[in-house]
Amino acid sequence: MRRHYATIKDIANALNISFATVSRALRDAYDVKAETRELVLAKAAELNYKPNVNAKGLAQHRSYNLGVILPTITNYYFSTVITGIQEVAYGAGYNLVLYVTNDSAERERDMIGNLSLGSLDGLLVCVSSDSALSTGFQGIIDDGIPVVFFDRVVEDIHTSKVVQDDYNGAFEATEHLIGNGYRNIAHIAGPEELAFTRNRMQGYKDALKKHGLPVKKEWIVHSGFSQAHGEQDVARLWKCRQKPDAVFAVNDRKAVGAMLALKQLNILVGQDFGVVGFTNDPVAAIISPSLTTIAEPAFEIGRISCQLVLSHIRKKKFDAKEVVLPGKLIVRESSKKA
């Protein structure tokens, strides 16, 4: 049997006040006395009142649904971002509708083409690895649906974006390796077309240049973001005539893959070969040796992204903002040279 929820009319009858007064009190209107509002809220709780979101949405021409498009939900970073989004969305009375692309540009395009825009008030997006193929987002914005990008963004679309400070994080990671005595530092990077891949690679290059160390094209390997990609990248680096003595990885999963590959080669990570990642995934503290990394503010990225999309929904002329959040170097065993 379905649970019965009280209505505004039930509260009005119980308190012997008008329907309109109850409605204004629940909306915290300025013209309702504080004691009246307290009585209404107490009676609403007593009678198990729940607002009718569908009716509210129809009255305000809103669905109270936010779409979230992201590559995966199975890793620490994205699950933490979603937690930040949820905190803000649910607090504002919004539901989330998740769309997972499995990091496929083709699936991303299909999802965009099949979105029911009438059932969404806004969209939060982290694009797939092949962002060059990401199309359709401008059309969604032109149709009046606010879009906010986070983490992996489409650079040529004018809308709000929330990212971590990829350049300075990569610069600090590379300079940390240099400061610990490593001199031949490779970079296992993400797909070339992604903005944050380019920013992290530039931070890596500029740190090497600052300290007069070589930037070797064969020591920069572009691939995906998985542990398997990290293993494959090290195998490729080991075919170079001159071998590196350290690796800065675009994310922790690739860094872990690199460490596993190095162990297979009987290379002592940390003592003989430095590794630094980027994310601060929980596995970084568990793997042996533990992984030095740049901690990303994933929860804050989700929270601020959701705040921005709600601002775009509430105020149609809200100016687009680009928010860049700093990371933090977490030093562990993988970068401690003997």
UniProtKB/TrEMBL annotation:
Pfam family, one: LacI
Positions of the HTH lacI-type domain: 6-60
Highest taxon listed in the record's lineage: Bacteria
A molecular-function term among this protein's GO annotations: transcription cis-regulatory region binding
SMART domains for the chain: HTH_LACI
Alphabetical list of PROSITE patterns matching this protein: HTH_LACI_2 (PS50932)
Record's keyword terms, sorted: DNA-binding, Transcription, Transcription regulation
Protein name per Swiss-Prot or TrEMBL: LacI family transcriptional regulator
Species assigned in the record: Chitinophaga lutea
